Amino acid sequence: MEVVAKIAVALVAVEHFYILYMEMFAWETLGKKTFKNALPEALFTPTKGLAANQGLYNGFLAGGLVWSLLIAEKAWAFNVGVFFLSCVIIAGLYGAVTASKSIFFKQALPAILALVLVVLFL
Q1: pLDDT at 52 over 90
Q2: Residue 69 sits in which domain range?
Q3: Which of 41, 72, 79, 102 has the fewest Cβ atoms nearer than 10 Å?
Q4: What is the mean pLDDT of the chain?
């Protein structure tokens, strides 16, 4: 089950690397498709810098999760993984409250499930 926990952490990391890519490099293409109901089309170009900043933060979260998978010492890997999964959960909950309820299901819930697996099996 340790492998399942690590796969769950890796999947959350991959999701946040994808968000990094979309927000930093494809805001005016993929961003428009993803947020077509949340933002008027005219706002994507003026908000490109803001989206890139958000994408950078998602990259830090993803990097921290990958880092937790590369740490050999189990207690240290556990603590780093719990920290970064908790950060993803908090960001997902905040986004669900302030931006869109779907963020809970897309970001917070996968991280919650990964955190449960990490706590139970690592």
Answers
A1: yes
A2: 2-121
A3: 72
A4: 96
Q: 40 phi and psi, to 5 degrees?
A: -65, 145
Tokens standing for 53?
Answer: 């900043």
38 has a pLDDT exceeding 90: no
Contact predicate 20/55, CB 8 Å: yes
Q: Cα dihedral angle (90, 92, 98, 104), rounded to 10 degrees?
A: -130
For 36-77, give the DSSP string: TTTS-GGGTTTTHHHHHHHHHHHHHHHHHHHHHHH--SHHHH
120, two tokens: 């139970």
CA–CA separation, 107 and 41 (whole Å) = 24
Structure tokens at 96: 């669900």
Domain count, the chain: 1
Per-residue pLDDT at 36 exceeds 90: no
Taking 90 as the threshold, does the pLDDT of residue 75 lie above it?
yes
Per the rule left: phi > 0, alpha: psi between -120 and 50, beta: everything else, 100 is beta
> What tokens appear for 118 in the block?
């990490």
- pLDDT computed for residue 122 by the predictor: 83
